[in-house]
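User: I'll paste a sequence; please echo it back and then give the predicted structure.

Assistant: Echoing your sequence first, then the prediction.
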Amino acid sequence: MARDKEETKTRILAAVGKLLAESGFQQLGINAIAREAGVDKVLIYRYFENLPSLLQTFGKEGNYWITTEELIGDETVVDAESLADCMVLLLTRFLYDLQKRPITQEIMRWELLQANELTHELATVRDQVAIESLEFLKQKYSFPPDQDIPAISAVLIAGIVYLVMRTKVSDTFLGIDFGSPTGWQRIEKAIASLLAAIVENDRSVQ
């Protein structure tokens, strides 16, 4: 019985992702999700309570977004010697992870056109991962008082998201070929150069 419940929940979450990628948020509803998943809508209410709660669960469990553990939970990140080095690791990991989530990219494109209470639920999930990652950095390195690390991170994350999403319509930007690994390697090096130049090379406080 427990296995059937988990399989049903997985089908429902997969249906949410498929519908969002294809049609965006305006057409998303319990009835449409139930049809796509092939389940009775009563089960959706039973397992997820309501649509906003279902969206929150999808954001956390539906392979929609990288988790905090996936982002920072290994020795490469933990052992980084400086704040700048660690930020480079996190941002490049985020870059290459987002490239592997085409459904997420489609959903984020829809968000730009259809911002509403449902898009807010997914944005909250993404923001929470960013907040937890920044807290990890702050505890490990102690942010320089004269540098706004969250704002610096926001600008770089936004740039990464834009470049990844833009590849849907064009493989080039400012003469950089994003249809090949070389283009993304240039972006990775640019992130490292920017952070080395603007973030103080503070060592770990631990």
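The chain is about 70% helix and 0% strand. The longest strand covers residues 172-173.
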